[in-house]
Amino acid sequence: METVYVVKGMTCGHCAGSVTQELTALPGVENVDVALDTGRVTVTSAAALTEEQVREAVDEAGYELVGTA
Ligand SMILES: [Cu+2]
């Protein structure tokens, strides 16, 4: 399944890389795609993630989860 999240504070490829790395580490995540211009992060996962899981991962990377798009 594919879920689109909005993340605040990412400005460059390094930011995108940090968020991608943290989200990829979550169980069942198969792909993470970051659109820097919109702050939208598309997560492809085998099973649904909780918003709490995603929030913690984004926070770990140093950014803020606004919510789902
Ligand atoms: Cu950056």
* Strand runs, count: 4
Q: Looking across the biggest beta sheet, what order are the strands in?
A: 2-3-1-4
Indicate the low-confidence ranges by residue numbers: none
Q: What's the number of domains?
A: 1
Mean pLDDT: 97
What CATH calls the topology is Alpha-Beta Plaits
Instruction: Report the principal-axis shape.
Output: globular
SS class: alpha+beta
Number of helical runs?
A: 2
- CATH C-level class is Alpha Beta
Percent in helix: 25-40%
Hetero compounds: copper (II) ion
What's the gyration radius in Å? Answer: 10 Å
Topology pattern, helix = H, strand = E: EHEEHE
- The CATH architecture classification is 2-Layer Sandwich
Task: Estimate the strand proportion.
Answer: 35-45%
| Separation of the first and last Cα atoms | 15 Å
Taking the sheet with the most strands, its summary is: 4 strands, antiparallel
InterPro entries: Cu-bd (IPR000428), Heavy-metal-associated_CS (IPR017969), HMA_dom (IPR006121), HMA_dom_sf (IPR036163)
Pfam families: HMA
Domain HMA: 1-66
Keywords: Metal-binding
Provide a brief overview of the structure:
The protein is α+β, with helices and mostly antiparallel strands. The chain has a single domain, classed as Alpha-Beta Plaits (2-Layer Sandwich), CATH 3.30.70. It contains two helices and four strands; from the N terminus they run βαββαβ.
